[in-house]
Specification:
Two copies of one chain form a homodimer. Chain A is built from eight helices and five strands. In chain A, strands 2-1-3-4 form a four-stranded mixed β-sheet, sandwiched between helices. In chain A, helix 1 crosses helix 4. Strand 5 of chain A pairs antiparallel with strand 5 of chain B, so a sheet runs across the interface.
Amino acid sequence: MTQATELYFDFLCPYAWRGVELAAVLKEGGEAFTLRHYSLVEGNHAENAKELTWRVTEQPLDEGSAYQQGSLRAFLASHAAALQGEAAHWAFTLALFRAHHERKEPLTDDTIQAAAQEAGLDLNAFTAALTEEATRRAELRAELDAAREVGVFGTPTYVLPTGEAAYYRFETLTREPAQAREWWTLYTTMLTSEAGIGTIKRAKNRPPRRA
Amino acid sequence: MTQATELYFDFLCPYAWRGVELAAVLKEGGEAFTLRHYSLVEGNHAENAKELTWRVTEQPLDEGSAYQQGSLRAFLASHAAALQGEAAHWAFTLALFRAHHERKEPLTDDTIQAAAQEAGLDLNAFTAALTEEATRRAELRAELDAAREVGVFGTPTYVLPTGEAAYYRFETLTREPAQAREWWTLYTTMLTSEAGIGTIKRAKNRPPRRA
């Protein structure tokens, strides 16, 4: 585990989706990644700017809540899926991301159940794990607190085994191994450069090209 | 000129200093850069967040002004130096950056005069150009407005001849050609990657290494 790159993501985020797809391709090629959760709604809310005044893990599951925007149900389901092993967790995570960002389905219970089925989960065990809601919330809280330690502010953020960590926002989805490797090498080269690069960020009126 | 990369900078900024030093090294190697001004104080002020409610070019030269923080005098001097040609402008810009960020001298008239001398400017012509203050302010305004068109928000920001533009923040000063070339290639590769990279930004609690 200590050699794996941690990948912080939120199901709400289309950039996180592309980041998880990138990692999934690299994982096939032998690169190790661990899935981790970060809540954009909790982390970027104005009321939480100075200190944490409320927590997504203490919100109701009501999808209309402005304090979690449907993300909480997806996070808890992700923890429930993780109990079935790493492969099951990745399959579920990719299935739910694709449902939400590729097929534009909402993060409802129906979508989550369909993703669990698509991922080949043991559905009875999945449902049982979801009913242990307090435990799933506690697992999520631990990861959100870990993200705060790192200073994650957006998704995807990768934390390399060497401790380097940065947000990586890109527009183009790839499932092509050579391309995924190239984009990953570019990112890690930047993070480990002797230049001590803190930020490269596109000027506001010059959006990145879409391939 | 159309083949040159535009480099937006503010004398207040230590990252812009390293960015200008980087460009100066690359320029020796044949890469073309044009110096351009961007005001961090004007651009990042809360009162200017939605629209421009005040302009640094309309502020008094008083160094204590919160609305220009000593940057205006340096900008006008930079335009005065530019009248003596490109080489003179680069020499003055580097001299003033080094005085302010390497030797920690304030951006006062004395420091500016010393930088002009160090850069080998014609001091009488320089002084005369500074007295044509309205013209220098108008030249500066044109560049600040151009920066707004690009959506510059920080310095250094480079605008490539192909139109790609991004803020590039790094910690390490280099005057070594191979290193400068490596760091520039990394930046331009990122900007032109088919990934469509918008941002790579270090997590808040993981500052970049200093070499």
